[in-house]
Specification:
Phageshock_PspC_N, transmembrane helix, 48% helix, 3 helices, mainly alpha
């Protein structure tokens, strides 16, 4: 039985709009960065602390090589 390859969660340095959080998350889950950004913008239309979560992730997730 083989284990799936995991990627380390890092912020993108080359494919960033603000902090690279959405691009880093997209790379981690195998999505396109544009899809993750769209999902984030749509989620901001719902009530909740989405923008604060983005800021926290920006601080917590280390910057990566890509």
């Amino acid at each position: 039985m083989t284990t799936p390859a995991t990627t380390k969660l890092t912020r993108s340095r080359s494919n960033r709009m603000l902090g690279g959080v959405c691009a880093g998350l997209a790379h981690r889950v195998g999505w396109k960065p544009r899809t993750m950004r769209l999902a984030f913008v749509v989620s901001c239309l719902l009530p909740g602390p989405q923008f604060l979560l983005y800021l926290v992730l920006w601080i917590v997730i280390p910057s990566g090589d890509r």
